[in-house]
Amino acid sequence: MRASDKAYAALREDIVEWRLAPGTVLAEVEQSERLGVSRTPLREALGRLTAEGLTTAGGRGVVVTDISLEDIDELFELRETLEGKAAALAARRGDAATFERLQRELLDAPGLIAGGKPALHDYYELVGRLDAAIDAAISNSYLAQAMRSLRVHLVRIRRLAADDACRLTAAAAEHAAIAEAIAAGNPKLAEAATVIHLHRSLSHVKAAHASHPKEHHG
Amino acid sequence: MRASDKAYAALREDIVEWRLAPGTVLAEVEQSERLGVSRTPLREALGRLTAEGLTTAGGRGVVVTDISLEDIDELFELRETLEGKAAALAARRGDAATFERLQRELLDAPGLIAGGKPALHDYYELVGRLDAAIDAAISNSYLAQAMRSLRVHLVRIRRLAADDACRLTAAAAEHAAIAEAIAAGNPKLAEAATVIHLHRSLSHVKAAHASHPKEHHG
DNA sequence: ATGGACAGCTGTGTATACACTGATGCTGTC
DNA sequence: GACAGCATCAGTGTATACACAGCTGTCCAT
User: What is the CATH number of domain B3-64?
Assistant: First the structure.
């Protein structure tokens, strides 16, 4: 693995996991020493992070981007647009059997969610497979790329909202509805199911954020 | 101006203006000598270009990305999604007076288009102002960022379709319709006007590309 | 004659040294 | 005492040197 990849992965993880708080300045020498790489690959890593929007390169040094409540609204506004369209396209172009299989798995997901932490990982992996299946089905690299760049920020937000079993069970049902609509080849329904899911997710995140607003900033 | 900025601007211009054909490998030493900068800032420039999708960093060296007819369809599929949503949001949140002024200017645009090359530049600048006004009105940095990254590729395509006065006149009317709908605060209408405009643009580009398919590849 | 292995080369990945810029703090003068 | 100017320094921007990997061409062996 290249040193720049290592630095990129480490920094990205640190930011997404909120170990590096928003506003932190990432001085090149300091970070290169901390991560055990030279300044050159570190700069490449910082460039990639900045291109993704996780950091901003304003003025002196790059700083970790802040994510506020307004940002969450904006983020979900774009997400609704992109993922709604993606679901609709997947319903038109996707393979029905693939999504029927995913739907069945998602309907069984509550068992996984109740099963504790190791099984929980299987659930997240299942949702990831649904995302990947949609990505593949839309056969639009530009749209897929736009969604990928969006998901980085979403993961960051997800860490703010401690997903409880109750919300995850509901989310699984919503995901199953999306898969069902895509399998049925119904674009409007798939888009509607996606919009519903995203709105519920947003409400949950905002509620969690409102009840523990400073958890990660102290 | 930093050397990396200079290299980035030069390479980006070369790619967008089709002076660097798709498939061209951008060897670091070769390009750094050609542009008169060192390898370090050149690598940063290449990284930015790759992040934007103008180049790909597969295997050995970075190569200029190809743009095919399928890519154009995919590109406009995403563009319709993003700009349609943007127009709708602008209609909801934008300042009516601003867009009324833009609409009046756009209705006068046929005079500019007929006026030859210097006046033509004014027309392009006017369309750019409409884009900027929409960007500002939506007040969603993530959506704006997604549209910015998309426009890079659109400029590249625009160079393929030699815009004639006839098409530009029609486009001006379509832009005026978009501005009017936004000024009227009608989101559905603004989105519809945008979708119409983009479909006409796409048809024009594809027609031009079909009649001169190899113009830029010889 | 053909296949494999080794050497050389081309080109990227990384490290480090140097230059320049912006800021901050100290000192001198008004 | 306050402000202006200069010096020092921290930190980024750039260049270059070095290491390593992949490919290619040639030579030797079968």
Answer: 1.10.10.10
